[in-house]
Amino acid sequence: MLYLYSIIILSVWIIYGIIRFRQKSTVTLSGEMANAIFNENLRIKNGNYGMSPVDNINYSEYRNENHLENPISNSTDLQIKHIIDEYCESQSKLDIRRSITLDGIYTLFTYAKRSVVFSLRLKKTEFLQSAISSLMMIEVDRCDYRDLMVALAFTRYSAEILDFKLKEFIEIHEGDIDQSTNSYFDRFINKISPNVSLQDLAGYHPVEFNTGLGFVSTNYEKYFPDNPLHQILYDISNIICRDEYCGSSISIAGQVPRVWLSSENDKKFNSYSNDLNGCASMHAKLEKDMENILSIYILEFSNADSPELMLNGINTRASNRFARMIIVKKNILCIVVGRATVVGKKDYESNDTLQRFKKPILNVLDGI
Questions:
Q1: Which strands make up the sheet holding 289-301, listed edge to edge?
Q2: 365: which of 3, 167, 245, 329 fits an S-S bond (Cβ 3.0–4.6 Å)?
Q3: What would the pLDDT profile of 280-327 be if each residue is shown by its tens digit?
Q4: φ and ψ at 161, to 5 degrees?
Q5: Backbone φ, ψ for residue 64 (5° rounding)
């Protein structure tokens, strides 16, 4: 009887583990992306396409090349620019567009946004023109159209600052654009009010780093801190990436998941949310095990007492589900979390190992 009871308990735990694994591992596609993948598979099935010029050309996640805080021009940019120049001169634009894979489309999106940053930093419209031309190579039916609209929002932002005639440029090159894609160009240029901000259109905010202008994701939320939280996190990310992590990405105007505030997932943060000026976060992957992630949240409060009060309200006992360290400096609260993203995977960090980041982070916070 005891043996049978043990088997039942073990079976329940196995089933629970499978359910948790599926919950954590399942990726839900948006309807737009599901349609894009369907159309991409249809293109492949029909077989009426040549070799993609963008094949095997990718931006490195390890070197943060997909992020817009501080892009640095590299050989990948030059390769893609050469491909775009050839496209603009080609008499077979339809064949080139049809040959570009779904992955290649998203490489072009990254190129376009990086080129916008370079256009603004260097005040050169040729980078902007190349960004727009890269988007003309895209077949919108094989991507999420919202990603095209985000990229177009970046080009419009640059065009306004550089006094570049975006509408006229697109009209001149209208024949270079896929018909479905062109309808989105037209919608963007003629039907979206010029008063709509980049933050509202793309969910990004232009910020000045000590390296120059960059863009940080805002998650479409407001962000009005007194301190440059983006720069603070950028400096911290450089420290993290000199350790064992890579691919750090910075977002502003987000929120701290409640689970990180307490091992019991308490909700004491509510009473302090009205005093919050802004929140910024970064997430980096462990280079030798990409399923372990380090997350850092920086919260700024208008009242200097709020971080300490909030800290006192948080359950500070060590959690057995993730590693956490909390730092308070003036009106800033910093939460550092290390955890594995897959159920059953061992966490690389512990509460003790996270302490190696405390002094470097405090040194950064001392500068505010």
A1: 204-209, 212-217, 245-252, 276-286, 289-301, 332-340, 323-329
A2: 329
A3: 899 999 998 989 999 999 999 988 888 887 777 666 555 567 899 999
A4: -70, -40
A5: 60, 25
Spatial separation of the C-alpha atoms in residues 270 and 177, rounded to whole Å: 49
- Give the contacts of 148 (CB within 8 A, at least 6 positions apart): 109, 135, 138, 140, 181, 184
Cα–Cα distance between 350 and 279 in angstroms, integer? 24
Beta carbons of 354 and 336 less than 8 angstroms apart:
yes
Terminal CA-CA length for the chain: 66
CA dihedral 179, 186, 93, 136 (to 10 degrees): -130
> Distance of alpha carbon 118 from its chain centroid, rounded?
19
Element (H, E) at 300: strand 289-301
Please tell me the predicted confidence (pLDDT) of residue 269.
Answer: 57
At 28 the pLDDT is 46
CA distances from 7 to 2, 10, 11, 14, 252 (A): 9, 5, 6, 10, 49
Return mean pLDDT, the chain: 84
Distance CA 328, CA 303 (A): 13
**Tokens in use for 198?**
């980049």
Which residue reads 């120049």 in tokens? 85
In this structure, the number of other CB atoms found within 10 A of the CB of residue 22 comes to 10
Residues 107, 58 contacting (CB under 8 angstroms): yes
The 10 Å Cβ neighbour count of residue 288 is: 10
**Could you tell me the pTM of the whole model?**
0.73
44: its two tokens:
């492949």
Q: Which amino acid is at 305?
A: D
The predicted structure's pLDDT at residue 29: 57
Pull the structure tokens for residue 283: 């997430």
DSSP labels for 206-275? EEEETTEEEEEE-TT-----SS-HHHHHHHHHHHHHTTTEEEEEEEES----GGGG-TT---GGGGGGGG
Which of 267, 257, 275 has its CA nearest to residue 335? 257
Residue whose entry in the numeric block shows the structure tokens 């992630």: 293
- Asked if residue 107 lies in contact with residue 56, where contact means CB atoms within 8 angstroms, the answer is no
Number of residues in the chain? 368
